[in-house]
Amino acid sequence: MLAFLVSSIRLGMAFLFGSVGETITEKSGHLNLGIPGVMCVGASCGCFAEYLYLSKAGVNANYFLAVFIPIVATLFGGAVMGFIFSFLTVTLRANQNVTGLALTTFGVGVSDYMIAETGSIYSKGSRFFTTSLPFADDLGVVGEILFSHGILIYLAIIIALATAFVLSKTRIGLNLRAVGENPATADAAGINVSRYRYASTCIGCAIAGLGGLSFIMDYLNGNWEYCIDAIGWLAIALVIFTVWKPGLAIIGSIIFGALYIASSYITGVSFASKEIFKMLPYVVTIIVLVFTSIRDKKENQPPQSLGLPYFREER
Amino acid sequence: MSANAAIELKNISKYFGGNAANKNVNLTINRGEILSILGENGSGKTTLMNMIAGIYFPDEGQIFIDGKEAVIHSPKDAFRYKIGMIHQHFKLVDVFSATENIILGLSEKGRFDLKEAAQRVKEISDRYGFEIDPMKKIHEMSVSEKQTVEIIKVLYRGADILILDEPTAVLTPQETRKLFSVLRKMREDGKSIVIITHKLHEVLSLSDKVAVLRKGEYIGTVKTSETDEGQLTEMMVGKKVSLNIDRSEPKNCEERLVVRNLNCVDREGVKILNNVSFTAHSGEILGIAGIAGSGQRELLEAIAGLQKVNEGEILYNNPKTGACDNLRDKTPMQIRDLGVRLSFVPEDRLGMGLVGNMDIIDNMMLRSYKKGKSLFLERKGPRDLAEKIIKDLEVVTPDAKTPVRRLSGGNIQKILVGREIAASPTVLMAAYPVRGLDIGASYTIYNLLNKQKEKGVAVVFVGEDLDVLIELCDRIIVIGSGSITGEVDARTATKEEIGLLMTKSADSKGGQAK
Fold first, then answer.
1. Which burial class, exposed, middle or buried, applies to A266 when counting CB atoms under 10 A from its CB (0-12, 13-18, 19+)?
2. pLDDT tens digits for range B194-209
3. Which domains does chain B have, with CATH numbers?
4. How close, in Å, is residue B64 to chain A by CA atoms?
5. Which residues of B are less than 8 Å from A184 in CB distance?
6. B138, B101 in Cβ contact below 8 A?
7. What was the pLDDT predicted at A157?
8. Does the complex come out with an ipTM higher than 0.85?
9. pLDDT of residue B294
10. Are B460 and B288 in contact (CB under 8 A)?
């Protein structure tokens, strides 16, 4: 049971990164369906950087650099994907849905290629990412659940809380939400809609990329698996599940993590029914979607201009 | 240049495409004064004010603020000159509170403090007598509350010059009175107020001066105390222009469509049609005149079965069977099959009649797709029809397979009207069929409508250009704020007469007419 909970949290944080990143993006009105691709690229960039560092440093690898370098590389890789998305949809006026799906296909392909070209030494970096807080072992069950995790887990929660704060309590957050709700209004109020959309998409994608890194380096202990995109789709579903609230997403992500791996912890489940279990997060998302639609509370609806382009001349 | 002038416009011109929206406009806005900008639809009132508010940039001319030349490129620039505009369509974020909307986009120094901002909002509203809850969400507000938020938004930013674009169009008479008393208080406070309007009685009751625009040109400014409705109407509509549209005498007039006491409400429960009654005869063109948004659209939609009718009846005398049907009980499809055709050309031409990405043939099929018995679509008929329309109406298009979106506005309209006429209707309703068309294309449409009339079709023509209405139609009914305010014989009516009826609304009935 304990192992189940700890695993749920570790997997959940991969969802959390993706979901917080997508929430930031969607708050600007950008529906980025490229998140699965972004997470793949983020993960492979992180792994590649880790490979470069570890092959250079060898046994002298130091904790700080072994963690810091891949994280920066991942953020960079994600941001580049976000920039591509923004450039295509804002500057070149491409359709967001099509661009997002293309980005997913592109990201999965690129990351597979990058990983195939990367020496497997990056896997060793996993031990840095899973290094837990030193006092965790002394605290028994509480320590196991709360303090036994690697750095990315805590980073995910900090980012989620910080995002929730920025969105609801700062001027930047107010402006960003206005851009996603009603870009014409934001524009008339003197907010640079394009700049906000570019920035939020790049930042959002950079954060989402960390989800891929967290999945590989933390949850899978450094073993590359070709299913990051599945995590990405769930991250997008999580945004809906938690009605665009990053604070709620912390709990939602753990629930998603638990549902996703529940089958492995229940004995006597056949292979086929395991796949049905993996479907559960989507089912609960649909249920949440139905309920929020029925209740029709304005605060729980997606940003009003989600997925819609904004060009000033087209009045 | 008077010492009191806040803004002076000198020879301002603005062109959209080849059309002049404003031409050589000179205007002075004084401090502590309420100025009305009066004009018909499309006379360039809003365009002119948008140039002061930084939405548009003038192509020619200069703007002086406090005697110094000003360059206003954006709404932000306008705010720097303490100019704020309240648009007709509110620019508010629905899920935000009043305060959040008011401070949106401001880059004040110091901590972000909603409570303090709400306090300031409260101060402003107390000062001028607004009633507003700073924390209320916009989507929970009435239209008048939303307007209040817009006005406070402008005041919060320190505006001294307020421009209101048709502020009363959405308000009830009581709310209008309240707004006017607030505006008078602002005037006492030394602020300059400009209201864009086409309602004469408001102009007379509120403003100090009236500036009149007509077809983009500045006609003149008069003091409200020295003018009357007659003079203003004449300035607004101008002298009659002869268009030489052929008009035949109506023949074989029978009552085709009888509308009795029609009442409709819109989604918010506001009454949009109020006891509308009229008769459309076969072999006659019935014009409907009125300021845009007075209920013309809803009236036509109600007849076509697209708008829910709350009360009243729409009787249709079927020439084939001689039966009398109440259209109110029928579906749009049944109404169409009876021969009642709506060729609606709304603000967005493609919106209601045609699918932009489909080619001309496919758009023909939108009306005929239910015909034919085979499993596959029958394309030959629609193709012949498309080619016939292209030839007869001189539609400029590479071929019949071009998506209609790529055609010019006039050609799109020709296709839409052509398709409806091709169904040989018994009632043809056309709303603004010549909007945005050049002269040649307009005459093609007039001729089409005239031919239908000669064939014995009852034509209902909703238009905005009074010259056209007077020359094309046989009878004209005038609609104002959802009620019929009068009926005139187009052969003897004058523009002033119709103009006065148009600006008369239900709440100002009586005592206002000449």
1. exposed
2. 999 877 778 888 999 9
3. 5-237 (3.40.50.300), 255-339+425-506 (3.40.50.300), 353-423 (no CATH)
4. 23
5. 91
6. yes
7. 95
8. no
9. 81
10. yes
Tell me which amino acid residue B85 is: M
Residue A169 in contact with partner chain B when CB distance is under 8 A: yes
A191: closest chain B residue by CA: B105
Over residues A26-51, the pLDDT tens digits come to 999 999 999 999 999 999 999 999 99
pLDDT for position B514: 30
CA distance B192 to chain A (A): 21
Q: Which of B172, B231, B163, B151 is nearest to B197 (CA)?
A: B163
Segment B75-86 mean pLDDT? 87
SS3 state at B476: strand
What is the DSSP code string of B353-378? H--TTSBHHHHHHTTTTT---SSS--
Query: Between A and B, how many CB-CB pairs are < 8 A?
Result: 59
**Residues facing residue B273 across a β-bridge:** B264
Q: How far is B101 from chain A (nearest CA, A)?
A: 9
Q: Which residue has the higher pLDDT, B347 or A277?
A: A277
Average pLDDT over residues B361-370: 76
Is position A310 within any domain?
Answer: no
Report the residue count for chain B. 514
- Let me know if residue A308 belongs to a domain: no
Task: Give the helix/strand (H/E) hosting B449.
Answer: helix B439-454
- Range ranked top by mean pLDDT from A114-128, A203-217, B118-132, B303-317: A203-217
CB-nearest to B105 from A169, A177, A186 is A186
pLDDT digits (tens, 9 = 90+) for B441-450: 778 888 888 8
pLDDT at B505 (0 to 100): 58
Amino acid at B223: K
**Length of chain A, please?**
315
Q: Are B327 and B316 a contacting pair, CB within 8 Å? A: yes
Closest approach of B121 to chain A, Cα-based (Å): 17
CATH code at position A31: 1.10.3470
A296 and B CB contact within 8 Å: no
Dihedral of CA B337/B341/B342/B345: which sign? Answer: positive
Domain encompassing residue A202: 2-300
> Which residues of B have a CB under 8 Å from any CB of A?
74-76, 79, 87, 91-96, 100, 103-107, 112, 137, 139
Contact (Cβ atoms closer than 8 angstroms) between residue A42 and residue A210: yes
Give the closest residue to A38 by CA, choosing from A194, A232, A215, A189: A232
A290 touches chain B (CB under 8 A): no
Min Cα distance B137 → chain A (Å) is: 10
Cα(A153)–Cα(B204) distance, integer angstroms: 69
Buried b (16+ CB within 10 A) or exposed e, B258-267: bbeebbbbee
pLDDT value at position B370? Answer: 65
Interface of A with B in 182-201 (CB under 8 A): 182, 184-186, 188-191
Q: What is the DSSP letter of B34?
A: E
Q: What whole-number distance in Å separates Cα of residue B369 and Cα of residue B362?
A: 9
Q: Does the residue A313 lie in any domain?
A: no
Express each pLDDT in A294-305 by its tens digit. Answer: 877 777 888 989
Task: Compute CA distances B262 → A252, B269, B296, B339, B341, whole Å.
Answer: 53, 15, 12, 21, 19
Determine contact, residues B287/B494, Cβ cutoff 8 Å: no
Overall domain count for chain A: 1
pLDDT tens digit sequence for A224-265: 887 888 899 999 999 998 999 999 999 999 999 998 888 888
Cβ-based neighbours of B443, under 8 Å, separated by 6 or more: B245
Instruction: Quickly count: other Cβ atoms within 10 Å of residue B376's Cβ.
Output: 6
pLDDT-derived band at A314 (thresholds 50, 70, 90) equals very low
Residue B86's DSSP bridge partners are B164
Kindly state whether residue A103 falls inside one of the protein's structural domains: yes
